[in-house]
Each structure stands twice: as C-alpha cells, then as structure tokens.
Specification:
The structure holds 2 protein chains of 2 kinds. Chain A is α/β, with parallel strands linked by helices. In chain A, 37% of the residues lie in helices and 25% in strands. Chain A is built from 11 helices and 14 strands. In chain A, a hairpin with a 2-residue loop joins strand 12 and strand 13. The longest helix of chain A has 17 residues. The mean pLDDT of chain A is 88. Helix content of chain B is 64%, strand content 5%. Chain B has a 4-stranded mixed sheet with strand order 2-1-3-4, covered by helices on one side. Chain B is mostly helical. The chains are: A alpha/beta, B mainly alpha. At the A-B interface, helix 2, strand 6 and helix 3 of A face helix 1 and helix 9 of B.
Amino acid sequence: MQDDDFVTVRELSHRYAGADRAALDGVDLAVRRGSTFGLLGPNGAGKSTLLSILTGIIAPQSGSVSIGGRSLTSQSQEIKSRSALVPQEYAFYLRLTGRENLRFFAGAYGLSHHQIAERIPDCVDVCQLGDVIDRQAKHYSGGIKRRLNLAIGLIAQPEILYLDEPTVGIDAISRECILQAIAALKARGTTIIYTSHYMEEIERLCDEVAVIDHGRILIRERVDRLLRSDANRTLQLTFGQPLGEEGREALARWNAIYVDASHVQLVVESAEVSAILNQLSAVGAVPVQMSYGMSRLHDVYLTLLKEGA
Amino acid sequence: MWTALKATWIKEVRLLLRDLHGLLLLFVMPAAFILIMSLAMDEDFSARAGKRFAVSVVDQDLTVDSHALIEAIEKNGPFALQRPEAPHQRGKELFALTIKKGFSESVNSDATDGAALLRLDVAAEANKQTQAALSAAIRASYGQLRMQRLLTALAEEGADAPAATHVEPLEISFAYHAGTKAPTAVQQSVPAWLVFAMFFVAIPVSTTLIQERQMGTLRRLRSTPMPNAVIFLGKLCPYFLVNLLQTVLMLLVGMYLVPLLGGAALELRGSMLGLTIMAMTLSVAALGYALLIATVARTADQATILGGAGSILLAGIGGIMVPKFVMPLAMQQWTNISPMAWGLEGFLQILLREGSALSVWPYATALLGFGAVALIIATSMHRTRIDD
C-alpha cells in the first residue's frame, strides 16, 4: 500500500447467508487516486459483491475498507456523498424524463437548486443527451439509456466513480460516446473502478487491473506491465489454410501451440523469428499474418483464470 | 435529508400521475363501486330506513270511502300514495293502484266484491317483498274500512257495538340512534368501498418498489447518502396523502354524485376528528400491507396478484362486499380478523352511529398496530432482499 492510494481494502471477506462458499475471501486491494482501475473476473467471481461493499450497499463482515482516508464502517455517509455507482442495469425511472431523473438523483445527494442547475447541463453535454433530455426515458434507445445511466452517476461530481459494465449491449456510437466521457472524467482526475467483459475497453482506459475469481484476487498489476510480461516473446502466426504435416514438422522444435489448424502461437526469443519464417518458407507454408511481442489482455486474462483454477 | 425527501416526493407524485392504470384503480374504481352499490342497494336500505315507497293512485270513485282507503293504506305500510297530475300520467312509481268507480258502494254493501274494484299494476322490476307488503296493506285497509262501515251501520241500527277505534298492534323499534335518520345504502357503501380502495394502494406501491428493486434503482439509491428511512418515507408519504385524498373524494361522491343519479345523499354525521383519525390510521395499515406485499412478492406480477387478490379476500371477509349484518352470526365473528373490518366499523361508528373521536379508538389502535407490525416486518425483509 502506498501514500497515494485512494481506496485501500484489507482482508475483506463476505459470505451470503446459505452460500456454500465465501463471495469474497480475504481480498486485499489498493487503487491509486486519479487512476482508472479495471476489475476483471467471470460471472460470480465476487466483482458485484466487492462493488456493493465499496459503495456502502452492504456492510463487510470482516476486514476493512478505507476510501479517501475515511473508514467505510464509521464514515459511510461521507464516503457515499463523494462516490457514485453506475450499475449495469438501467437504474432510473422510465416514466420520468432524463432531466427529471437527473434532478431526482441530485436530490438524493442533497444538492442545492443552484448546484443542480449548474451541473445538469454539464452532465447532458458530456453524455450527449441534449436532444432527448426532456423526453420520458421509456422512449430512449438502449444506447441513450446507458448514457443517461452514466450521466446520473456524474451529477454528484464524485471523487470516485464505480462503473459496472457501462457499455454492455449497446451500439458502437453510444459505446464510443461513453468511453470518451469516461476518458474525460479520467483526465479531470476522477478515480474510476471499472468492470467490463470487453477487454479492449480495459486495455484502452485502465491504468491498473485486478483479476478476481472465487472471491480472491488472482493478480493486481499495471495493464502495460501485465501485457508486456507475458506477451513480449509470443509469436502469433496465421495461415491462409490449415497447416500441413510438413509445416508442423518445421515448427516441432519450438513447442508450437495450435490455437486451431490455421493459427499457431510460439514463445520464442526475437532472434529466432527469422529462422522460424525461413523454415516455414522452405516447406511452402507462408503465414498470411504474423505478430510478435504483442498480446491481448483477453489472452492474459484467460491464462490467469486457468492458472488460478 | 429534507432535499432528498422532497426530491423523492416529487418523483413519486410524477410517477403516480403518469400511471393511468394506478389512478383509475385508486380513484375511479372506488367511485364507480360507490355509485353502483349505493344505487343497487338503495331500495333494500330504504325499506330498512323507513322510506315510503311511492305508489301512483288513480281514484275513479272519488268518494269519502276511496279517500279513507288511501289514508288507511298509507297508515298500514311504508307507502306514499300519489295522484298523477293529469290522467294517464305516470311517474317513476313501480306500483299503480286504480280505485274503480263503484268502490264506495261495494264497501257499504254485501252484494259486490269490493276487491274486484281495486286493481294494482306492478312494474316488472318491482321488488316482490315490497309488492307483497303493498298487497297486504291494501287488503288490510279494505278490511278495516269495511269493518268500520259495518260497525257504524250496526250502531245506527241501535245495536251495542264497540267504537270503531284503531289500535296500533305493533310497536317498531330501530337499532340505530333514536331521533336520527336511518342508515341508507350510500351511508354503508361509501365507507365500505373507501376502505377497499385505500387498501388498493398495495398495488401501485408494491409494483413500483419491486420495479425499483429489479431495475437496480434501489441498489443505486442505497449507494447514495440518502438514508433508508428517507427512501421509505419518500415513497409512503405521497401515498398517505393519496389515501386522504381518496377519503375526501369518496365522501364527496357520496354527498353530491350519488344523489344526482337518484340515490340518497351521504350525510356526514359524528365527529369529523374521528373521521380524520380513522382515515389516517387506516392509511397506515394499508401502507404497511402494501410494503409487506412488496417484500414478499418477487415480481411485479406477483405483487399485482397478491395485492389485488389479498385485498379482495380481506374485503370479502371484512364485510365490505356483503354488509356484515347480512352475514350469518357465525360468519360475522370472522369478519373481525380482517383489518378492513376494523376500518369499516370505525367509519360506520362515525357515519352511522354519530360516534365521537373517542369512540373509534379501539379500531384506530388496532389499525395502527397492524400497520406498525407490517412495516417493521417489511423493512427488515426488504433490507435482506436488497442484500441478496
């Protein structure tokens, strides 16, 4: 744990009544002030429970949580007034207009008329809701509903924002709008905890990432280090047709992993790459696409989960 | 806290105003029930209340005897005999009595069958019991008239006959407050269907709460600094006002709309403070019931079924649909298990028996107790539901 940690979680455990295992089992976590922190894990891993505890929705059974130097146990109201949750559901009122929803949630945070009048245009602008803000939310498309969901999370100008799969199930334009809004928040210095199953979003937005499974943190690392650590020796080859027997023999000495008949991965030093390509060329198996030194978070994530299991 | 509470009230009122079905359920349905039931039971209650049934009379005889018959019929039953202003003119009367020419002669002679000179026309929709009572009154009056004439004739002939005095054979005692007007259908219907309607807030309250739970709105609200108590108070206070508004509107329907359609007007008797206490405590009970439904039900559909069917069941048991006094004695005791019966009895204590504010305390206390227990169970269960 470091001095600039904004969120500090120590030995956090929680078990639901009647459950055969703990939803969270001794979780330790630290999130730096102003960073965007990705929380990854399969369904049922404990992400939602962790978010519910961090946002004060449920009380931790054991362990401690400190946010912005305040204890969640003793100062939860102060913490809540400085944080906001954007759930993955459309957590607002469909029979109210976008503006009425913003006003209501602003009231829930105890904002004054002056603050509300000042902030609504800002939220509307950031989430590009200007054309629809005075229409009832039931008439919104899925993408616009997601944007309103985010806008409500911004109304209190929180120091820390919890985004629970904020782009699930929407069109590319709305997704881009939301990702840009999140990037703008990040630039303002808002601390963000972000969960998503879209790895490219995590790669794009997050500084750090933690992978959680079975209620335990498998790894917590900076995204750039995580990608570099395992991937910088990976050669990925894609062939135009399934690789024949001669091609397979040519790669035999490098312990090739066949993703499928046309895709091969090899972990090799950079000096060996040209030799591999020569061997393949000699047997007439020329790849149509290749990459070296690059990996995707998706692959790292799956590897971590397999190792964790 | 005040800002959050005010924001929640505004939100709830907006949601309710945009819920057409909810508004129909809370205001139009009970008003319709009051109109229908007040008018449907008007004749039955009128008979109990001593109202005189109008009978059109066409007197072709126009003699002292025909006049005496009319007076006797009015004395012998709850009937008001009215002559039409023009021949063949009929009003809304369900009965028409024709006294044919020659009636007087038949009374004073043995030769003619006087009854044949009286004709009673009965409308198809007339109540059979009322018809039987009217027939009996006519026959009795005719018998009395003939007896009087016979005794008079005997006296004139010098016989030692008893004086033809009328002795009232039966004293009628009413169960309601002496000296006041008797209960009418509207006096029973308004409180009954008002109680029913107030419990129907269970449907909009529970369905909106379940929708908030399912959509994650409640979870989101719990992540804000808004205290749980404000979340609940914010939801319940507008519906408390809705219940009070229902009370005022239903009383107005009984006072002004029912008489416009031909029924008796509701009369506000008893203590207004008592009436207010009953409306408020009944609302607490109804809101407790509503929250209980909201926490027990997992989906809005379940809440609608539980809230609707539960209210109908409580109404059936509680003497809302069938007045308690119509039920067999054994069943009348069962009505006391329904909080709707406590509410109805409290209202009737004021509206029928002209009770004081103090006289409704057993009903008000029972309703408050029910509401408090339901609210406590609901809030504790609700917290568990969100945590799940």
